[in-house]
TrEMBL record:
Localization: Cytoplasm
E.C. code: 1.2.1.38
Family: Belongs to the NAGSA dehydrogenase family. Type 1 subfamily.
Membrane-spanning residues: none
Highest taxon of the lineage: Bacteria
Name this polypeptide is given: N-acetyl-gamma-glutamyl-phosphate reductase
Organism of derivation: Raoultibacter timonensis
InterPro entries, per the entry: AGPR, AGPR_AS, AGPR_dimerisation_dom, AGPR_type-1, NAD(P)-bd_dom_sf, Semialdehyde_DH_NAD-bd
Gene3D superfamilies: Dihydrodipicolinate Reductase, domain 2 (3.30.360.10), NAD(P)-binding Rossmann-like Domain (3.40.50.720)
Pathway field: Amino-acid biosynthesis; L-arginine biosynthesis; N(2)-acetyl-L-ornithine from L-glutamate: step 3/4
Pfam family, one: Semialdhyde_dh
PROSITE patterns attached to this UniProt entry: ARGC
Gene name per UniProt: argC
UniProt entry keywords in alphabetical sequence: Amino-acid biosynthesis, Arginine biosynthesis, Cytoplasm, NADP, Oxidoreductase
Lineage: Bacteria, Bacillati, Actinomycetota, Coriobacteriia, Eggerthellales
Length: 354
């Protein structure tokens, strides 16, 4: 099967990761890559690492450029995505949106956190949430829609929500947790996109680490929606001098029934069983904790577990590559599912060795 594919926003960090991954994919054939500012430029001129890997040339954005595609990946900022999705769906093209535009199910919540009115709220219900390990049934529905001849829409999960939710969900799902969940997460600078700002400029971001969006970050409602914990998540992101990676440390208060009663071994067994069928999630042996270097360049999520000294809190740590499992890799995983392929297709490369 050849799936004709376009990547919108392909010159950005997530977009070029899609070019890299899909260049090795046996079924998705990328024929169109768009960038307004770089139209006419060969991809390998901008990213010499891809020389010999692709001879694609950036084209101007526009639905016309994507005509004939079966699948389009949108690697553009939020709000830019929702201005393009309805027309793509109408043209019969399945859309894998890496932005936040279709993740939140409630348009009023979107407006509150993104400070803008949603322009196609009628599609929020249709959008399948793109976090395969936790939303398999939504993706199966999208696959069935596509199989029946309609275009599918997948709202790929955000990077921090992916690392955080994969680390937290099994304990919450098993009813071990009661109370406010606190998340301290650290991201590499590619998480902020390609354009340098004062915050991400080398001289400011290097040799420095800072918390940002404290109490106000837009991933808070997304994490709450995934975990079913409305108003019960305190999320603090940090920017660290790394290129790639997210490390999310999640503090989960154990319920009175489980605090001091349920062993860490039993909790690890529960996690291992929960993710038994999930090729990309690895629950580490007790006594070991994940690190971003071990997942960089791969679609893996590593999870480490510990109990607080008082035994009343589970500490779950998740590590992913923000550009891979947190963005492009996860989008390809979702697209594999929607197009009826094994979800690991084209995603089996291990992490960078060092
Ligand atoms: N970076 C990350 O770790 C993650 C990113 N995401 C999401 O993926 C999307 C892309 O992020 P990222 O690659 O980091 O961002 P970048 O800023 O690196 O790239 C975004 C690209 O989109 C293009 N673009 C900007 N505005 C528009 C528009 N109105 N219409 C079409 N294209 C536009 C840009 O310009 P041009 O057309 O000139 O090339 C650029 O190439 C965002 O929604 C982001 O939130 C999700 C998870 C993680
Ligand atoms: C370091 C940094 O700035 N990270 C970005 C999040 C990454 C991202 O692209 O957000 P989505 O996953 O929602 O698309 C931020 O805090 O806004």
């Amino acid at each position: 099967m050849t799936i004709k594919t376009g990547i919108v926003g392909a010159a950005g960090f997530a977009g070029i990761e899609l070019v890299r991954l899909l260049g090795e994919h046996p079924s998705f054939e990328v024929g169109v890559v768009t960038s307004d500012s770089l139209a006419g430029t060969p991809v390998s001129d901008l990213y010499p690492a891809l020389d010999g890997h692709t001879d694609l040339v950036f084209e101007k954005h526009g639905v016309d450029a994507l005509e004939g595609c079966d699948a389009v990946f949108l690697a553009v900022p939020h709000t830019a995505a929702m201005s393009q999705v309805p027309a793509l769906l109408e043209a019969g093209i399945s859309v894998f949106d890496l932005s936040a535009d279709y993740r939140l199910k409630d348009a009023a919540v979107y407006k509150r956190w993104y400070a803008t009115e949603h322009t196609s709220p009628e599609l929020l219900e249709k959008a399948a949430f793109g976090l395969p390990e936790l939303f398999a049934s939504e993706l199966a529905r999208a696959a069935a829609e596509r199989e029946a001849g309609a275009a599918a829409l997948v709202a790929c999960a955000g990077c921090y929500p992916t690392a955080t939710s994969l680390a937290a969900y099994p304990a919450i799902h098993a009813g071990l947790v009661d109370g406010t969940v606190i998340v301290d997460a650290v991201s590499g600078v590619t998480g902020a996109g390609k354009k340098a700002t004062e915050r991400t400029h080398f001289c400011f971001a290097n040799e420095s680490i800072e918390a940002y969006g404290v109490g106000t970050h837009r991933h808070t409602p997304e994490i709450e929606q995934i975990l079913g914990l409305e108003g019960k998540v305190v999320f603090t992101p940090h920017l660290a001098p790394l290129n790639r990676g997210i490390l999310s440390t999640v503090y989960l208060p154990l319920s009175a029934e489980h605090a001091g009663e349920t062993s860490l071994e039993a909790i690890r067994d529960l996690y291992t069983e929960f993710y038994a069928e999930d090729a990309f999630v690895r629950v580490l042996p007790l006594g070991t904790m994940p690190k971003t270097g071990s997942v960089a360049g791969s679609n893996a999520c590593h999870i480490g577990l510990a109990l607080s000294a008082a035994g009343d809190m589970l500490i779950a740590v998740g590590a992913i590559d923000n550009l891979c499992k947190g963005a492009a890799g996860q989008a390809v995983q979702c697209a594999n599912i929607v197009f009826g392929l094994p979800e690991t297709t084209g995603l089996t490369a291990p992490a960078l060795p060092v």
